[in-house]
Amino acid sequence: MSTWKYKAYRSIWSALDLLFPPQCGGCGKQGVRWCDDCRRNVQVLDGIVCDICGLPQDKPGVCGVCLANRPHFRSLRAWAVFEEPVQSALHKLKYRRDISMGDAIAAEMLPYVENLRMDWKFDLIVPVPLGKQRMRERGYNQVAMIAKPLAMGLGLQYLPNGLTRRKETRSQVGLSREERRQNVHEAFQAWNGANGKNVLIMDDVSTTGSTLSAGAEALYAAGAREVYALTVARALSHHDLRRV
Ligand SMILES: [Zn+2]
Ligand SMILES: [Zn+2]
């Protein structure tokens, strides 16, 4: 994937914006897909976080939760806190069929991810797949809508079917950390595209990181060298929010 393809891809969205005047994904303002106010209001998660799980903490290093039960990915980061304006943008992409939001979010995240790549030498991007049932209902994987333009913007390989679901899992919402881990245990199967590669696995939102950890475990089993994990947003407890 080369960056000229990304420029061409972006210009298609710009042309569509002329035909169908866009609304800001964050606040709904007419005329742009992401306005300057929303750009300023994104709470980028760039403070002190756990080296592994990426949750905010007071001092650098690995948190107690990761020391007790180490996740499978090498490291997980999120671009922003799962609050406005990012929450609305993801909602539009996921539930209101505004797939142009995927490209808009990817463009906003790109500088953050370019910065991550100084340390994370991943070669390809794999999205967390939807279950069959949800894929049928929605018709598209909202994570792919972000991961694909992001891979193009970085000039990296995008592997849409690098992971598939082995089983349908119920929503993680409302489950405890341990229940989440159990729910997604052995949920994924990775294919040999990941063999010998450094992989970035992507999801839209993470809470404890259990889905991404299960995905990373499958990618390692398929021969991946290093697996890093990235989400657009991180849902934080009130306790963690105070540390941001
Ligand atoms: Zn806005
Ligand atoms: Zn941690």
Characterise the protein shown here.
The chain has 244 residues and is of the alpha/beta class. It has a single domain (3-241), classed as Rossmann fold. It has helices at residues 3-19, 36-41, 64-68, 86-95, 100-116, 132-138, 142-154, 177-184, 210-221, 238-241, and strands spanning 75-81, 124-127, 157-158, 163-165, 188-190, 198-206, 226-234. The strands form two sheets. It has a five-stranded parallel sheet with strand order 1-7-6-2-3, sandwiched between helices. The chain has a two-stranded antiparallel ribbon with strand order 4-5. The chain is globular, with a radius of gyration of 17 Å. 41% of the residues are buried. The model has no long low-confidence stretch (mean pLDDT 93). One zinc ion binds at residues 24, 26-27, 29, 35, 37-38, 85.
Give keywords.
alpha/beta; binds zinc ion; five-stranded parallel β-sheet; 244 residues; Rossmann fold
N-end to C-end Cα span: 35 Å
* Content of β-strand: 15-25%
CATH topology: Rossmann fold
Question: Helical element count?
Answer: 10
Query: What is the highest CATH level, the class?
Result: Alpha Beta
Radius of gyration: 17 Å
* Whole-number tally of structural domains: 1
Task: Provide the helix percentage.
Answer: 40-55%
Give the uncertain stretches in residue-range form.
Answer: none
What overall form do the CA principal axes indicate?
globular
Instruction: Report mean pLDDT, rounded to a whole number.
Output: 93
What is the N-to-C order of secondary-structure elements (H for helix, E for strand)?
HHHEHHEHHEEHEEHEH
Helix and strand content put the structural class at alpha/beta
